[in-house]
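Need DUF1349 domain-containing protein's 3D structure for a figure. Predict it.
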Amino acid sequence: MTALRIDALPFPLERFGPEGGWTYEDGALTGTAGPKQDRFVPPGGDALEPASDAPRLLGAAPEGDFQLIARVKVGFDAAFDAGVLYLHVGEREWAKLCLELSPERPTVCTVVTRGQSDDVNSAEVEGDSCWLRISRTGGAFAFHASADGERWTFVRVFTLGTEEERAAARVGFLVQSPTGEGCTASFDRISFRPTAPGDLRDGS
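Structure prediction for DUF1349 domain-containing protein:
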């Protein structure tokens, strides 16, 4: 299937998982999850249980530090519907930064999967949109959220995989609807910076 190119990104995006109907028009990337589609490995379950799956659009990030930024808008309908910035370093080593209906209020949520997934809620969000940012800083990754794309709130810092896996990380976008009949999310104001934030906790 033909890769999708976005002007702001220095790498093409490839489709993974179920069909997401991805389109890119007028600066906005849009994708749709089908009924009960998610990307999660329940903690405490069978370690060999396959991960559930949701539509993803991912590209290989260049070497070194970076920031992937987008304003995410979600057509919320059912609990845990979400638009997601997604990081992939291995089949069971991946992470999600979500704008999610969790379960009744739009909330910034994170999932880090190391064999099995954890699940953490951050701040509630007013309305149906929020800016999200994934960064690679040295051997770690960081998640931030923002109401305006200018001042950023620190959400989480973590590492995944081996040094080689981290260097070959794929980043991009995901849409999910774990309990619902489908969800559409759009991502605009997309940008990519070949640097890490100057300080993870000072709002920059």
